[in-house]
Fold:
Amino acid sequence: MAGLVETLWYRQRRPLWPLLPLSWLYQRIARNRRQRLQAAARPLPVPVIVVGNITAGGTGKSPLTAWLAGYLAEQGWRPVILSRGYGSDRPADSPMVVTPDSDPARAGDEPVMLAAQTGRPVVVHPRRLESARLALDQGLGDLVLCDDGLQHYYLDRDLELAVFDGARGIGNGAGLPVGPLREPPERLLEVDFVVVNGEATGPVPTHPGRYAMTLEPSRVRNLATGEIQSPDWLRGKDCAALAGIGNPQRFFDQLRALGAAVEGRAFADHHRYTERDIAMGDNRPLLMTAKDAVKIRPFAHDQCWVLDVEPTLSPGFGPALEQALHRKLTGRGLEPTSLRET
Structure:
């Protein structure tokens, strides 16, 4: 499936060009929906920062969200993370507060991962505004951080961050279903920052607030026993790997860059794993991402290893984010210092 997506969306040719009328229709509907919802949105009494993208598929939004949660906490904020909860099977009747011990089948894989990585409250619901209201009513935080919410226009926002996979960029530049674009590149004129995950070898648009992000391997963790190894432990090892993320090949390439010989198996994003999926038949280490691990944890065997990564942002990004947030808040009559004290 990943190879097919690469062929259809992330090369200069447009094999699906006969579907261009559908692409134009999709873009028009998306534009009209956005204008309607933005006109009805009302600001919250706390800062709202949205992380998302204009392309379909994985770009590194959740790692950036985790980094932001940590950075903003260091600046004195108490961020609460909102997520839709993709991959969950719970009824969307009310928002759910997620902890590191929550069941991914009910909460979604990324929310459980974010709760474990950040130690911050995470609230899931398809309508982020309802999640935000619950978080404020319960005093869970004083700043709302919305993961994968760029197109969720029910929720008004102070800052918008668009994330790109550096190798993929905007692909063939066409809208869904001909290409990967959820919204046209012109949408980036309105976002505050563009964050490029990895080396920008693909067609990534220019932007005055463009910064680089890398996902640096920090450790290799045994999911069953808790044993910790450095990433160098992988050098020269014959490994199996699985990935149910937006861009599995990026994970497999990262393992190979660490010196491992990898037989990779890609699953659909948010795949619901079973014990059969991790049955090995040999003693090779089975590598996975932190997102995969939260679903495999209940039945992990001793050969299940997680590659944990730490996002690294360009040095100037944090201060630029603070300055932009201060401008937006003072522009709507809010004082950042007093907000952090509530």
Q: What stands out?
A: The chain has a mean pLDDT of 92. The first strand starts at residue 48 and ends at 52. The radius of gyration is 20 Å.
